[in-house]
Design a protein that fits this description.
two-stranded antiparallel ribbon, Dehydroquinate synthase-like, alpha domain, single chain, 45% helix, 11 strands
């Protein structure tokens, strides 16, 4: 079993490997009650988590929510709060999130807001959840104005990333999660890039790739929980990605949007003279080899408008995480419109 400790105000472990979910009883030993939040397709796994908690003496019950981004609404959160009230959860109890990134975002948010904060344990069931959504303490729901604009910083007490569940993950979902892994390679860990260039599917070294990506995030989160400094670099590719997701009404998978967003950010850095043409092209080659999209056709004016209300914006200023060389992220604020237009042209219809 691999373990990565996320440091900061509240230390916690991310446990990675076969059978990690079985540590749930140890993590919540002595807890009176727990609500296990999960989507209906994961009823079997959630049932095993409930059983593990009950064996450990925790009065646990399952709370069913919609699957995917449909879970991340104020209406669903309100329904879960009502269930927590019915179960009598107090501040000394806990919420457990079992599911992909959307469900762990929701579970963390309701835990952060119920009685102004109860403990949350995350049991992510996707690569995306394991390396990104469940780690770091960012929680949130979506609104008509944009993605994750309502939320709270609420670190979990543990993340149990059981890699056994990945065997049944649809290939498209696995690839989507790998977009967040390769992102960590571009911003911080060149070994990730080498592993994926040797095996673009990411199946040969899955546990090592997940561990390395989690370590990149843990280092950033431990230094900057509230997203005011180095943690912002984890948003590489996300400014455009969140706009694509919003414009497409979340019909695009998150990792697919991030893949296009990284290509856009690379093209933008090339326009700004921060990346060489080969470094820009390395993005396109690797992302495409991984089976992820490198192009997006949409309404550029609308995309720019949505980007300006992204939570990473500052007033009317557009901000992008870009690379000043591979592995050296920085913030580019208010880039020249000609650079933006050229990067968009490459993503919209240029060569892959």
């Amino acid at each position: 079993m691999r373990r990565v400790t996320v440091r900061g105000d509240r230390h916690y472990d991310v446990v990675i490997g076969s059978g990690a979910q079985h540590e749930i009883g140890l993590v919540l030993a002595g807890t009176a009650r727990a609500a296990v939040v999960h989507p209906r397709p994961l009823a079997g796994l959630a049932g095993a988590v409930v059983e593990g908690l009950q064996t450990a003496g925790v009065a646990a019950e399952a709370v069913v929510v919609p699957d995917g981004e449909a879970a991340k609404t104020a209406e669903v959160a309100a329904g879960v709060w009502e269930e927590l009230g019915r179960l009598g959860l107090t501040r000394s109890d806990a919420v457990v999130g079992v599911g992909g990134g959307a469900v762990t975002d929701l579970a963390g948010f309701v835990a952060a807001t119920w009685t102004r904060g109860v403990r949350v344990v995350q049991v992510p069931t996707s690569v995306l959840g394991m390396v990104d959504a469940a780690v770091g303490g960012k929680t949130g729901i979506n609104t008509g104005a944009g993605k994750n604009l309502v939320g709270a910083f609420h670190p979990p007490v543990a993340v149990l990333a059981d890699t056994d569940v990945l065997a049944g993950l649809p290939e498209a979902e696995f690839r989507s999660g790998m977009a967040e892994v390769v992102k960590c390679g571009f911003i911080a860990d060149g070994t990730i890039l080498g592993l994926l260039e040797a095996d673009p599917a990411g199946r040969r070294d899955t546990e090592e790739l997940i561990e390395r990506a989690v370590r990149v995030k843990a280092d950033a989160v431990g230094e900057d929980l509230y997203d005011t400094g180095v943690r912002e670099f984890l948003n590489y590719g996300h400014t455009l990605a969140h706009a694509i997701e919003r414009v497409e009404d979340f019909g695009w998978r998150h990792g697919e949007a991030v893949a296009v967003g990284m290509r856009f950010a690379a093209e933008l850095a090339g326009q700004a003279g921060l990346l060489t043409r080969d470094e820009v092209d390395r993005h396109s080659r690797l992302i495409a080899a991984m089976g992820l999209p490198t192009r997006y056709t949409g309404d550029w004016d609308r995309i720019q408008s949505v980007m300006r209300v992204d939570k990473k914006a500052r007033g009317a200023s557009l901000r992008f995480v870009v690379l000043d060389g591979i592995g050296n992220p920085r913030i580019l604020a208010d880039p020249d419109q000609a650079w933006l237009d050229a990067a968009w042209a490459a993503v919209c219809g240029g060569t892959a």
